[in-house]
Amino acid sequence: HLQAQQAKFLSDAENELEELAVTIAQAKKMVELIKGAATKERERVEKLFAEASEVLATFQKEVAGFIEDGERSMLGEAEADLRWKEERRAKLAQCKQNLENVPSTDTIYFLQEFQALKVAMEENLSPAPSFQNELNFTKCTQAVGAVKDVLSAACKNQRDHLQGKGIDGLSYQEMEEGLKDRANRQGIRAGRGGGIVSCFPPHPHVSLPHTVAFIIDLDSDTADKFIQLFGTKGAKRVLCPISYPESPTRFINCEQVLGVNLMNRGNYYWEVELIDGWVSIGVIAEDFDPRESYNRGRLGRNEKSCCLQWNGQNYVAWFGGFESVIQQPFFQTIGVFLEYSEKALTFYGVKDSKMTCLQQLKVSHFAKGQFDPFQNKINHQFASLFLCKLKPAFFLESVDAHLQIGPLKKDCVSVLKRR
After folding, report:
1. How large is the angle between the packed helices 107-122 and 2-100, nearest 10 degrees?
2. Which residues lie below 8 Å from residue 120, measured CB to CB, with a gap of 6+?
3. Taking the CB of residue 243, how many other CB atoms lie within 10 A of it?
4. I need a surface site. Which of 16, 69, 369, 414 has the fewest CB within 10 A?
5. Which range, 27-31, 32-36, 75-79, 216-220, has the best average confidence (pLDDT)?
6. How far apart are CA 261 and CA 217, in angstroms?
7. What mean pLDDT comes out for the span 290-319?
8. Where is the B30.2/SPRY domain positioned along the sequence (predicted)?
């Protein structure tokens, strides 16, 4: 019995040793991988810092040269003016001295010296220095200060990013804990489209008391016959019509589909994946007539809807038939943030848990609306859209267009705010 136990222990020990040998080999590979990756990253960072230092050194040299050129130009003019004034003063002093030294009995000599003094006093004055370069010359400190501020802000932002912090300065772990704590205190809200939704943490400068991560289900009763639905989350435009049943809410002239969800107060956020083709994402009034003509029925081509369109080359915001082209790279994930309290709709490009504001539709009281037809249209009619109950809306423009609803990236929930 003891021999059997000993044999078993030896076998177990041998197996464990073999497993440890394998895991040690794997750990060694991991150590080497980490060291190699760190070395490469360190080399890249050193190279980038060297390039950045070279850029700063070049800029410093240019600014110093600019100061020297300005100093040289201004000094030449100022020194010439100084020399002229000193020579004139010496000449006048000499004429005055000569006149004082004339004997009172020598009338002719007196008249000659008096005339010489008079001529010297009547000589044209030298023009005052212009110093045309003075403004540029004295802007060097302002320019370098601006560069320093930009660098400081960029360094802080990137430092926060490296430390795993979000836009509002909290780490993702801290944000997640805040979400859980607020959910425990306030409870979890349910969206009308079904599913569980979580509360957004309030930004210190923006009150978001009713913000929810909105769970969207596509409404098959609204889908155009050339849109194929995949469950309640996916939609693709097809060539062959689908025999959907008759429905008074179905689009018949535009390849569009709506969410079943209604929005009429508070704030809502959802995300859409652009899988292929030309897609428009937006909101539409509940009472919009789905039988409108193609020109009037498309999202954003009327006053009852607005959208963000990807046309294969650019993003374009649409409202009331007016458009605004957006110069941003392609984002596969689009976040949509609807704020009833602010009467605002914001579209975000979402990538790697980072959010880039693509366009915010909101009334602006600044002068730019007077010169921008799109903003002018927003200023005059966009607010009236929030008098309606709204629904999420989607327009699949090209025959290969394909989109998927959500799911939300939880890190983005924590950094959501109006910018």
Report:
1. 150
2. 88, 91, 92, 95
3. 5
4. 16
5. 216-220
6. 7
7. 94
8. 196-412
Residue 130, pLDDT score: 56
Distance CA 119, CA 113 (A): 10
Q: Which two tokens stand for residue 251?
A: 């689009």
* pLDDT tens profile 225-275: 999 999 899 999 999 999 999 999 999 999 999 999 899 888 899 999 999
290: left (phi over 0), alpha (psi -120 to 50) or beta: alpha
Residue in the structure block whose two tokens are 């018949």 = 252
Q: Where are the domains of the chain?
A: 1-126+134-158, 218-365+372-405
Task: Give yes or no for a contact between 323 and 314, defined as CB atoms under 8 angstroms apart.
Answer: no
Mean pLDDT of 341-363: 90
Look up residue 183 and give its two tokens: 């959910």
Q: Which residues, 6+ apart, have CB-to-CB distance to 361 below 8 Å?
A: 306, 317, 319, 344, 345, 346, 378, 382
Q: How many whole angstroms separate alpha carbon 158 and alpha carbon 329? A: 21
DSSP state of 273: E
Q: What is the structure's pLDDT at 176?
A: 43
The CA angle 344-227-270, to the nearest 5 degrees, is 30
Angle CA(92)–CA(97)–CA(99) in degrees, nearest 5? 95
Right CATH for 218-365+372-405 from 3.40.228.10, 2.30.29.30, 2.60.120.920, 3.30.300.20? 2.60.120.920
Structure confidence by residue, pLDDT tens digits, 364-417: 876 555 678 899 999 999 999 999 999 999 999 998 899 999 876 655 555 554
Half-sphere exposure of 264 (CA within 13 A, CB side): 8
Q: Minimal CA–CA distance to 222: which of 192, 242, 247, 194?
A: 247
- Please provide residue 36's backbone torsions phi and psi, each rounded to the nearest 5 degrees: -65, -45
CB 222 within 8 A of CB 262: no
Q: Which residue has the higher pLDDT, 128 or 213?
A: 213
| 288/250 Cα distance (integer angstroms) | 11
191 C-beta neighbours (distance < 10 Å), count? 18
- Please choose, from the candidates 341, 303, 309, 304, the residue with its C-alpha nearest in 3D space to the C-alpha of residue 325: 309
On the question of pLDDT at 336 being above 50, the answer is yes
Q: Determine the Cα–Cα distance for residues 317 and 314; give it in Å rounded to an integer.
A: 10
Question: Which tokens belong to 209?
Answer: 């008391």
